[in-house]
Design a protein that fits this description.
α6 runs parallel beside α8. The longest helix has 22 residues. The protein is an alpha/beta fold and 463 residues long. The protein has one domain: 3-Layer(aba) Sandwich (Alkaline Phosphatase, subunit A). It contains 13 helices and 19 strands. β15 and β16 form a beta hairpin. The strands form 4 sheets. It has an 11-stranded mixed β-sheet with strand order 12-2-11-10-1-9-5-6-7-8-19, sandwiched between helices. It binds calcium ion. Calcium ion binds next to loops.
């Protein structure tokens, strides 16, 4: 039945070769390299991502540009190193004056210029003042939370904390307007579904025009909660519950594309924003969220999917990174890479689409300014004077420090890394900043709780 519906819709819509593909970019928060089936996880049940991998491409060596939410998102959105544009260091906090400079050109701006409808669904976290929010950065639509789900006036157990500055109640936004708030565990347990519902509504509404759906999921960032049925299905493990909810979300999005008959005209990219936080898995890799630049901090579980264009069931070891996505998508849709702006990423479209003979544009990969990889050799800057050297071809888990055995290689890579850091320091651009910044809301006022806003007031969650 589904196949019949698909072909009917295909005939009814615009000729597919007359327009660029739709783009769906799913960016999970704090999921690790080893959390899903295609990357070796045997505990979490991830049938949708397993299927996505079977129908598409598994990128085994895809990296983020930073190890925390805000800088990683800044780099993804702009194709530029976060430390070049003042978005490194601390993440953005509620009511802070700092944010992604509106002068930067985002993926959404590049695609909107080409006639794409643009929507952001999930967690933004590039500044919560109006000039930094999605509507000012190229998105037509935004549903989600402005910053992390742990930036709320509750402690780690989810209990209310008085005067927990700077954390005012966590607003749920529609564009620049707060429309609800995340009041407690039950509301938290709906955030994955809320984001998915809104992304699907947008995709459905814009099925007949090119669209860009950016889906930076709130999950699997702490605090993690689940509704009892999901929790039970996941063996009473809230970490597993959250991963499996993300999987279900991907399944719903891909099913929507299939049912609308636009799967063959849609590129879907799935990855995560940094290494896995506590309770997540990095598989064989060392590291996790934050900290030194081991592989597990920055190598992400990444899949691409575009039925009929990306071959089914292929894998790649070619290196690509989140800063390559902007120039790659620009090439895909025939847009110029932003003029007058220095974009650090490279065109890796052939790698992302698994084209025959695709080769990484990166002979050298930098891990912020604290690590460098050239071929199999990886140097980790542990402190100002301490460096470790690993042979990734033989030691993917970075267990055997070879710095003492190969001092010349260490010197060579340190020199390259220093030159890289200096070249960025010599060419930075100002961060966005507003005087007299203030929180989006000071109190919950008349706002509905998220579960009331979603029409599901009786929802309960397991803490
Ligand atoms: Ca994160």
């Amino acid at each position: 039945m589904v196949a019949g519906v698909c072909s009917l819709l295909l005939l009814a819509s615009t000729p597919l070769d007359a327009r660029p593909p739709n783009i769906v970019l799913i960016f999970i928060d704090d999921m690790g390299y080893g959390d899903i089936g295609p990357f070796g996880n045997t505990v979490n049940d991830t049938p949708s991502l397993d299927r996505m991998a079977q129908e598409g491409l598994v990128l085994r060596q895809f990296y983020v540009s930073n190890t925390a939410c805000t800088p990683s998102r800044a780099a993804l959105m702009t194709g530029t190193y976060a430390h070049r544009i003042g978005m490194d260091g601390q993440v953005c906090f509620p009511g802070e004056g700092r944010g992604l400079n509106p002068d930067e050109i985002t993926i959404a701006e590049v695609l909107r210029e080409q006639g794409f409808a643009t929507g952001c669904f999930g967690k933004w976290h590039l500044g919560d003042q109006p000039p930094f929010m999605p509507l000012a950065q190229g998105f037509d639509v935004f549903y989600g939370i402005p910053y992390s789900n742990d930036m709320w006036p509750r402690n780690k157990r989810g209990n209310p904390v008085a005067d927990y500055a700077p954390y005012t109640p966590l607003p749920v936004m529609h564009g620049d307007m707060p429309v609800a708030y995340v009041s407690d565990a039950a509301d938290q347990s709906l955030l994955c579904e809320f984001v998915t519902d809104q992304a699907i509504a947008f995709i459905t509404e814009h099925r007949d025009q090119p669209f860009f759906a950016y889906v930076p999921h709130v999950y699997v960032h702490f605090p993690r909660y689940a509704r009892p049925d999901i929790f039970e299905k996941a063996g009473g493990d809230v970490n597993r519950s959250n991963v499996e909810e993300v999987d279900a979300s991907v399944g719903r999005i891909l099913d929507t594309l299939r049912e609308l008959g636009i799967a063959e005209n849609t590129l879907v990219i799935f990855t995560s924003d940094n290494g896995g936080a506590s309770g997540m898995s990095m598989g064989p890799l060392r590291g996790g969220k934050g900290g030194p630049k081991y592989e597990g901090h920055m190598r992400e579980p990444t899949l691409t999917w575009w039925p009929g264009t990306i071959p089914a069931g292929v894998e790649s070891d070619e290196i690509a990174t989140t800063i390559d996505i902007l120039p790659s998508l620009a090439k895909l849709v025939g847009a110029e890479v932003p003029g007058g702006h220095m974009v650090d990423g490279s065109d890796a479209l052939d790698v992302l689409l698994a084209r025959p003979g695709a080769a990484s544009p990166h002979d050298i990969l930098y891990y912020e300014t604290d690590g460098i990889r050239r071929g199999k050799w990886k140097l980790v800057k542990v402190s100002k004077k301490k460096f470790e050297l690993y042979n990734l071809a033989a030691d993917i888990g970075e267990r055997h420090d070879l710095a003492a055995q190969y001092p010349d290689m260490v010197d060579e890579l340190v020199a390259l890394l220093n030159a890289h850091a200096e070249s960025i320091a010599a060419n930075t651009r100002p961060v966005g900043y507003v005087e007299e910044a203030k929180p989006i809301i000071h109190d919950s006022g008349d706002l509905l709780r998220l579960r009331e806003y979603m029409g599901r007031p009786d929802i309960r969650a397991v803490k």
